[in-house]
Structures are given as structure tokens and as C-alpha cells.
Design goal:
The structure is a single chain. The strands form three sheets. The chain has a six-stranded antiparallel beta sheet with strand order 1-10-7-12-5-2, with helices on one face. A four-stranded antiparallel beta sheet has the order 6-11-8-9, with no helix packed on it. A two-stranded antiparallel sheet has the order 3-4. A hairpin with a 7-residue loop joins strand 3 and strand 4. It contains three helices and twelve strands; from the N terminus they run αβαβββαββββββββ. The radius of gyration is 16 Å and the shape is globular. By secondary structure, it is α+β, with helices and mostly antiparallel strands. The N and C termini lie far apart (36 Å). It has a single domain, classed as Sandwich (Jelly Rolls). Helices cover 15% and strands 29% of the residues. The structure holds succinic acid (SIN) and manganese (II) ion (MN). The site of manganese (II) ion has 3 residues, from loops.
Length: 209
Amino acid sequence: MPHPSPEARTLDGFRLLPGFLGRGDQEALRDEIFARMKQAPLYIPRMPKSGAPMRVRMTNFGSLGWVTDKERGYRYQETHPETGRPWPAIPDLVLQIWNDVGGYPDAPEACLVNYYEGDARMGLHVDADEEAWDAPVVSISLGDTAVFRIGGLLRSDPTRSVRLASGDVCVLGGSSRRAFHGVDRILPGTSRLLAKGGRINLTLRRVRA
Ligand code: SIN
Ligand code: MN
């Protein structure tokens, strides 16, 4: 048996499905997202303890949404932190993608919406606020291409850079579910899907075991 490279080991269970969504589906999904954002507007999340603003604006769809603020930190909750209203439903097309690629019997409760504009990026982190560790995280990219980084189980493990373009879907399953990952930067002008440019990322999460 050939020895797996450190890089291959870090990517066990990570699947990139380039161009999973065609242009028509991307446009339909974009329109569904903007319609839902009228009910659940993007807000600026704040880091636990320091209260420092994140560079990415966020909202959620589904029965649970991931939020963070200075006082109470990272968590899932049923309502939007600024409006107090329940999150809008996850679009059917998004649930269909989960069914097609997730390989998990239960539906996701949460669809986190990340909106990257300008020099927004996201530092290396692990998605660790879910009880259902056996469920994958499924990510859908729309708009400008992201330089995504994925490593291993330790922050110090080797990382690999992967470009995520509009319509790409990726799955963090298996051991990659616990892998450190982040977004180094967005490449402006790489897509015409969003009128004002930037990137929308949706991540689908099964929260409860
Ligand atoms: C995330 O890790 O929550 C977002 C990843 C991405 O924007 O591709
Ligand atoms: Mn993440």
C-alpha cells in the first residue's frame, strides 16, 4: 500500500463537487436567498468575549440558526438575534442538495448564510457547536470564487488551498468534519451572479443528535 501523504490524510472525507449547480439553479437559489433575507436580514456577528465584529455578515434559514455575540458566544438558536423572529425555512433546492450529497438520514436543521464582501475572510476554525458529529457539513458557494483553506484535526496540521467557485458544493464528512478550515479571501470579479459582487456561502448542518 502506498503511504498516504499528510495532505491526503487531512482531506479524508472531504469532497469537492465542482459545478454541482448549473447557472439556472444558481440564479433560482440566489433569488430565494435574497427573498428570505428580507425577513431575516444579514447582521454583523460578534466574537465571544472580545465583541470584535466578524468580517462576514450572516443570517440563517431553518429551525435553528448559528449565532455569536459578545455576551453569550457561539450557539444555535431558533430566532434571529436582531428581529427576534424565527428563521425562514431552508429552500427546497438546498434540502435537495443535502439529500443528494449528504448521505445522512436526517434533515439539517440549520443553513448558515455567510455573506462575503470586499476583503471579508474567515479565520481557521472547526465547526464544533453541533451535537451530531457524525453528520457532514455541506457547503454551497455562490458568486465570486473563494480561496478556501482546509487542514487537519490540529490547527498546526498542514493545510491545502482549494478554490470554491459559484455553483460548487463541498462536503466535510468523515474525519474532515472536524478539520480546521477557513476562507483566505474572495477573488473579486470572478462571477456575475451577484449584482454587487461578493460571495454567498451556505452551510447545512445537522445540529441535534
Ligand atoms: C464556514 O466555514 O462557515 C464557511 C466556509 C465558506 O465560506 O466556504
Ligand atoms: Mn466552518
